[in-house]
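Render this sequence as a predicted structure.
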Amino acid sequence: MFPTDAKTWILYIVLTVILGAIGSGFWESVFRPIFSKLGRVSLRILTLGLSSALNSIYGDIAKRQVHRPILFLTFLITISAAGFLGMTGSYYHAKSLGGEEQTRAEAESTFNEGGISGLDSRRKELEEKLSLLLFLFSIYFFVFTLYAYLRNSYVVSAIGYFDQCSAICLPYMTDDARKHLTSKFAQIKTKADFQEVIGHLHEVAEKNNLRLPSFSLF
């Protein structure tokens, strides 16, 4: 029901602002760390802990080929894949139940007029198999897109973390040290390489009483 007077409208607006502030506070303090941790764990599961998959992620960080528009696009695709998975799962569930009911009906009745019921049974069986194939494909598609999103999200976050730390420390570094840091970042191939670069920035920060943001490595 829509408000009909100015006081009610003002009350609704104030409540919306308050809820938004509370929601953003909970997101920053509670939900963001939780989702970040879940993302790291999910990424490790999807890569099966393979060092080659891990190194390829850090290779993408050095190349800087993943940008936020790509991340947003993969997020939309992942949401679409999740919706597709839900639809195919529901369709397969419905067809499975329909197949079971059809089997029970055929067991209870032996009447078959001109083979019509036999054709209908085969048609339902084909529909059930098709629904299963669609469901399995939707699972694969969702897992693939989820991995792409989590991977790109980590790459973008790692690049942003390096850029922020660099911006804090660069005024306290010589020109040669800056060039060396840029070169080392471009040569990153493993997690250890990334940690070495970030570790150098932390050393600069400690010497100059600077505070760097935190970051959870994958």
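Summary. The chain is about 80% helix and 0% strand. Residues 21-27, 101-108, 110-114 have pLDDT under 50 and may be disordered.
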